[in-house]
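R.M. (postdoc): so does anyone remember the format we settled on? I'll just put the structure tokens first.
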């Protein structure tokens, strides 16, 4: 895997943060998924499939999400050129236009937005069938097995976590032996597979600089930003936030610090002392300011 430069990684993180703000999908989840899928490389391409870009969308999945959500994000020209056949396949009549749409996968902003929209769609669908809040791992399962496969996996795991995954998903097991089988060849149970994917997602998020767990509930960061957005309003030292609201920077910092001190990231942060925690604080502040 190629080394991603600091500047490139920062620009990708900014794109992911913007997508999180616009869609409400958890930043840590989107960051972890990007790290796992592409190593934070916007130009990544798979050698064994049509998957490409930051989130490794295959051609059909990308055309589908652009058709559904492209117009919401200034890509009406792309959505209008995509049609769906009676068999459910997405097609573009002009070859050059089709390639131009597929090339959008290499744009971090577009890729992150479409990944977030796709995650939001899966979240709503999973919560409707599972009757509980979806976690980051649930969403990654939908990415890994498809929505139908994820529903089957999660509903079965709830009642029978000891069932082996390979017996339910033989094709996926053949293609992903390291996930479905232990190093000694023993097939993993559904519960073990779920834990493995959770760990993979969290390690990816941590290595990319996430401020929390990617496998947890998906609303923590968005809720934190909403809470502090509602609380700001100091007439002194006003700042213009990314959404156009005006608020006091003192309350802004206090609430951002509170966000960083939640969950598994509890730590005392001194804004005057340079530490990795301060770097995360500065990043979140700049991201919310639209920098």
């Amino acid at each position: 895997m190629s080394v991603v430069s600091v500047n490139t990684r920062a620009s990708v993180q900014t794109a992911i943060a913007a997508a999180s703000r616009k869609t409400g999908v958890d930043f840590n989840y989107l960051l972890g998924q990007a790290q796992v899928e592409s190593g934070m490389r916007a130009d990544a391409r798979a050698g064994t499939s049509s998957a490409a870009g930051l989130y490794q969308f295959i051609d059909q999945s990308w055309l589908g999400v652009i058709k559904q959500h492209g117009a919401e994000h200034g890509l009406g020209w792309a959505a209008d050129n995509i049609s769906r056949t009676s068999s459910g396949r997405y097609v573009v009549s002009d070859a050059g236009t089709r390639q131009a749409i597929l090339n959008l996968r290499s744009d971090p902003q577009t890729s992150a937005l479409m990944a977030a929209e796709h995650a939001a769609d899966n979240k709503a669908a999973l919560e409707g069938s599972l009757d509980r809040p979806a976690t980051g791992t649930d969403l990654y399962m939908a990415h890994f097995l498809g929505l139908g496969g994820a529903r089957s996996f999660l509903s079965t795991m709830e009642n029978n976590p000891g069932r082996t995954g390979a017996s339910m998903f033989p094709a996926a097991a053949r293609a992903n032996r390291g996930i479905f089988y232990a190093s000694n060849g023993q097939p993993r149970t559904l519960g073990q597979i779920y834990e493995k994917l959770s760990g993979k997602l969290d390690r990816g998020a941590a290595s990319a600089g996430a401020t929390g767990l990617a496998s947890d509930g998906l609303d923590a960061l968005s809720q934190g930003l909403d809470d502090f957005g509602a609380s700001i309003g100091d007439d002194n030292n006003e700042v213009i936030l990314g959404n156009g609201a005006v608020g006091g920077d003192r309350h802004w910092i206090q609430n951002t610090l509170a966000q960083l001190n939640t969950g598994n990231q509890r730590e005392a942060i001194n804004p005057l002392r340079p530490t990795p925690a301060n770097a995360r604080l500065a990043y979140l502040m700049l991201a919310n300011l639209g920098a």
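R.M.: ...and that's the designed sequence above, right after the tokens. Also worth knowing: Confidence is low (pLDDT under 50) at residues 220-279. The beta strands are 83-84, 90-91, 238-240, 246-248.
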